[in-house]
Amino acid sequence: MSNNELLAEARSLQDWLSGLRRTLHMMPELSLREYKTSAHLADELGRLGLKPSKLWGEGLVADIDAPKGAGRIALRADMDALPIQELNEIPFRSRHDGVAHMCGHDTHMAILLGTAKMLAGKRERLRHSVRLIFQPAEETPPGGARGLIQNGALEGVDEVYALHNQPSLEVGKVSTCAGPLTAAADTISMRLTGRGGHASRPHESLDPIPAACALVGQLQTLVARRVSPAQQAVVSITRIQSGTTHNIIPDHADLLGTVRTFDAPVRDLLEREIGAMVAGVAAAHGLEHEYRFERGYDSIVNHESGVRRVAEAAGSVVGAENVNTKQEPATWGEDFSYFLQQRPGAFFLLGSGNRREGICEPLHSARFNVDERCLPLGVAILATLALS
Questions:
Q1: pTM
Q2: CB 215 within 8 A of CB 192
């Protein structure tokens, strides 16, 4: 079967894919609570003659065996939604208040189910057996990837691949790179503790608020003065909480933030340097301190062999001129990193935006949406990986 025929077959599924995606969009569920989502996926896989099984949480794994194929590749889609109130005025908007698929995991699940539908009828043509992995809890560390891997999701698998929709890319574009593609995403939390008192007599207190303000500014110097200009890092304080009213100096101030890095030595460096800076600022203000550096997902590091395979498959579907293999690394985190630490493969970005129609809101926006024409393109690319 030529790639033109494969793409034509995938496009013939457009209405089915869109309907599937919209059904999943209306029933979003948070990490480790993907009960109805999992049941719906299991039903759809069963209709295709597949036998899904649960390995961890609500995640599902299903195999398509190739009688004449060599080896097995795994294809993964994430399942969970975000704690966001959707603001889109669309007929299929989220039916669950405060929860919505604002990262496009509904799109990923629909694409993987579409791939299953395509491949289930082509077992004799498969070059590789295929494992379909529907993963829970991508959005909430420690995530679902490790749980699935520890329970055998990659046993017998030789390569592993996944995609993520990208609204900043127009439909018909694909982007990836060898090496780091996403950042390690870590959380920092700090508490500065002094002595509260009356706001009119600050000299009788040890006020943690000026120290907290100084710390926020000082932390920004770590990237500028401790990290090489040839390397990348982000240190952001995203929440400060202290005090109760206008005339009371509080006892403590709490700070919360994130650290994003691509290189393990830089990650280790910032963990140490942030701790030293918190201790130094606290000491300078006569305060006690607490500091925690919680490691989140590791950086996705694509294998060159996997990127080559993705580039060939995507190029045969959307045209080589529409495939970028020099994608600039992104500072968001993704636990597909753990799959690629175990097996060769790659993670790639699938264009889902359409600026002309106003579909360009970023991931995690309350108005995020996708151009559903990306669905058959994702299906054709993943199917090509199995058939080539």
A1: 0.93
A2: yes
Provide the 8-state DSSP code for 121: T
Quick one: fold of 184-294? Alpha-Beta Plaits (3.30.70)
pLDDT digit string, tens, across residues 127-136: 999 999 999 9
| The one catalytic residue among 86, 273, 361, 372 | 372
C-alpha R_g of the chain: 24
338 is catalytic: no
CATH, domain range 3-182+299-387? 3.40.630.10
Cα–Cα distance between 314 and 324 in angstroms, integer?
10
d(CA 24, CA 107): 8
Residue 5 among the catalytic residues: no
Of the residues 297, 334, 338, 361, which is catalytic? 297
pLDDT digits (tens, 9 = 90+) for 33-50: 999 999 999 999 999 999
68 vs 126: CA distance, rounded Å: 7
Domain spans in the chain, listed from the N-terminal domain onward: 3-182+299-387, 184-294
SS3 category, 313: helix
